[in-house]
């Protein structure tokens, strides 16, 4: 950083009055801060590194107070940098803010992934490793420490043996079919014994079924790993905790278990059952087309990505994949952050390192998944073709989240006949006889009662066109609605 750039950065900080993901402020007006280790660690452990800026007092309204002695400050900061493992090589810049008032920056470069984590030697690797989250330095979790180690040593948890498992607890028909297909595609396998073939295909390790083998071929994988499944919920609102008119927290709630192919199929069926359906009538041909709330291609890729690329280490095997339907979006949570050097910006562009290579190869054959790095582009393309907002990909601490938005600003037409031109007039006619919530939902062809209440019934109630049969108990299960005469 040049002195002029440091001055510009200081002006910007005085205006915005905030620290950031890559910026930490220290006063250093009297002496060098005693403990910079947490920030040195967190900046070193992120790709972008970070900047320590000395001479601004955050407690005094981000006033530029200057540093006590630029030369001594650099010396003492360097001493702290040398207490890190690996040692941190800060790059210093000095600039004179006003006559006699000096500010100093220390640029901390991000370490290569193979050298992380950077930690304070005095605290040790486990307690001295930190990550930057917003403007805070937070201790690394056991999982985050392990993920660096696993990548550096090329450990693949999908290949670890499951000591409790035996080949007798596997679906032999599926195993035999899979092995036969491999032998047809690769004639060399025909020369191997069955036991040798299982080893070569990573189904077993020293005769013991691997995690990949169990998840794809076991009679009941969750007998060994109860939480390696999927939990799927439909929330009657935009956040967990929202309730429906009858106080129900979930409209639907299901635990999905079985092998990876079975879970993928059941998860897609769950999503299809719980999506609203738009009916589109072609003005020229009169042809009716039913379109799901979200493109099934996008959901399929997101679910398969979660099942294949989630973290299967001992640190996350107690956490299931989660599918959350909200009124405005669908979220798919996959345990474990992005693997290796991959970043969100590189998704669908760069070729990633595979966290679970053995499992990915098996699942490609068993589910038809394209292990060709096409999942993210397919999700983006499918959402664009539907005219829906760009999908959101988030690499959170310990999980990766895909969010698909349904574009609630787009009018949703009820699933009904071509002669129906508008929901409201027909609904008013239908409600000349008092109708329950479910009867109205069935009439409109919308599966979610909460959605019907919010988007159809509530506006008519507010306008006075619909009235309640039990107005003193608006949430009563016996409540019905009828058209005001």
How would you sum up this structure, described in words?
By secondary structure, the chain is of the alpha+beta class. It has four domains: 3-140, Schlafen, AAA domain (Methyltransferase, Cobalt-precorrin-4 Transmethylase, Domain 2); 159-214, no CATH class; 230-405, Heat Shock Protein 90 (2-Layer Sandwich); 423-483, Arc Repressor Mutant, subunit A (Orthogonal Bundle). It is built from 15 helices and 22 strands. The strands form eight sheets. The protein has a six-stranded mixed β-sheet, covered by helices on one side. A four-stranded mixed β-sheet has the order 1-2-7-6. Helix 8 (211-217) runs parallel beside helix 11 (357-367), helix 9 runs antiparallel to helix 10 (296-309) and helix 10 (296-309) runs antiparallel to helix 12. The longest helix is centred in the last third of the chain and has 15 residues, at 449-463. Mean pLDDT is 89; it is low at 410-425.
